[in-house]
Amino acid sequence: MAIYTVVRAIFRTLFVLFNNLYAIPTYLVWMAILRPLLINHPGLFNKIEGLGYSWLLHFVASWLWTGGYTLAECGDDVTDLVDSECLVIGNHQSTADVPMLMYFCSNDSKPRLARNLYWVMDVMFKYTNFGWVSSVHGDFFIRQGQDTRQTQLIELKSHLQQVYIPRDRKWILLFPEGGFFWKRKESSQAYARKHGYPVLEHVTLPRIGAMQTIMETLSPKPLSPSSSTNNIHAVANSFGDAESIHLKKEKHLKWIIDITIAYPKGKPLDLLHMIFGSLEPCQTVMHFRRYRAEDVARTGDALLKWMYDRWAEKDRLLAHFYETGKFPILPISEGIRNDGPKTLPLKWWWYSLLNVVFFLSACLHLYIASAVVSAFLDFLS
After folding, report:
1. What is d(CA 309, CA 301) in angstroms, rounded to the nearest whole number?
2. Residue 278 vs residues 7, 28, 93, 336: alpha-carbon distances, Å
3. Closest Cα partner for 289 from 260, 327, 328, 326?
4. Rg, the chain, Cα only
5. Using omega within 30 degrees of 0 as the cis cutoff, is the peptide bond preceding 341 cis?
6. Where are the beta strands (DSSP E) in the chain?
7. How far apart are CA 13 and CA 5, in angstroms?
8. Average of per-residue pLDDT across 269-278
9. Which single residue of 89, 160, 203, 323 could bond 164 by disulfide (Cβ 3.0 to 4.6 Å)?
């Protein structure tokens, strides 16, 4: 069994590395080739880029699925919100959280969702291999720390106006806790005791800075005519004609989606487990709650209270899950209940086809590059 585990880990590591070697460069090369479309047809470029981005998310999902790490959903059904402007908030436990969300967003039951994601993630992610992809896609990398907090929030607001709106993104994904649970638990509990807030055992108190900036920037409250016009012209000057990039005066947040991520027995996967397949196959469950953005406070103490209430509820949900292995059934928030947990299946033939397409595309790029280099050397000689 030990030999099998080692061989399996080696094979899976080589598979993931090889997958990265041809998938990510292929995406980046095609985006560079198609970049001129941004001048006259930015909407077309964004659709093509979003499609390529969604295919890469499928690869990440396949790494989990082939390791026996599946995903299930329960709680409020959010399928009908795929094409709506949503702010998605969730607890943050480990490096597997992002791949798990990629798994969810690239699932067949949520068509088009993966194309139109907008991530707000820690700046450290920018320096990974997938960070290059996220940079092209237009995700925002936020730097933690009190010294840079205000500057970062100003940059986030500008980025939303210059990227999220003109590229017609839909779901904004944010981890309000600002770090992994195991790193922040002690300081979060100390802060809660000092200020009289709930002392949480399975999540940490969320920070509201980024969420408040997003809520204010994409507020459903109408802007004054003059400021609205100025914003449109400013963004249009950066990305081309306002109509061609689908910039709409009425584009604003419509829903807040609250996700509680639960790993079996409270032991989260991490990136190495996912790659090596070193843990026993298991199922992660995501519990969903949905709220109309117009019903949620946007600023100050009211937003802080709303968020702390949500995280206190998460703490109770996770306590119940870790004790019983399932989430309790809560009163429905909005829409249709998905009692679940419903396992999200993946199509092996689709992932196989994507691998073939990306591999052949990488071979084509290498052939063209080698031909160009060879012709240049012949010219010099």
Report:
1. 12
2. 11, 31, 18, 37
3. 260
4. 22
5. yes
6. 69-76, 86-90, 117-122, 140-142, 171-174, 255-262, 282-292, 337-343
7. 12
8. 91
9. 160
Q: How far apart are CA 78 and CA 88, in angstroms?
A: 11
Q: Which residue has the tokens 């585990």?
A: 5
3-state secondary structure of 57: helix
Which of 37-41, 284-288, 339-343 is modeled with the greatest confidence? 284-288
In this structure, the chain runs to a length of 381
| Span 236-263, pLDDT tens digits | 344 344 333 344 445 799 999 999 999 9
- 112 sits in the region (left: phi over 0; alpha: psi -120 to 50; else beta) called left
E strands in 153-293: 171-174, 255-262, 282-292
Distance, CA of 123 to CA of 134 (rounded, Å): 11
Q: What's the pLDDT tens digit per position in 160-203?
A: 999 999 999 999 999 999 999 999 999 999 999 999 999 999 99
Enter the tokens of residue 59. 């690869």
State the Cα–Cα distance between residues 51 and 121, nearest whole angstrom: 21
Please name which of 172, 175, 174, 173 lies closest in space to residue 93, comparing C-alpha atoms: 175
Residue with tokens 């016009």: 229
Report residue 94 as tokens: 């480990």
Report the DSSP pairing between strands 69-76 and 337-343: antiparallel
**153 by DSSP, 3-state: which?**
helix
Instruction: Give dist(CA 97, CA 270) in Å, integer.
Output: 8
What phi and psi values does residue 70 have, to the nearest 5 degrees?
A: -100, 175
Q: Which positions ≥6 away from 355 have C-beta within 8 Å?
A: 19, 23, 59
SS3 category, 313: helix
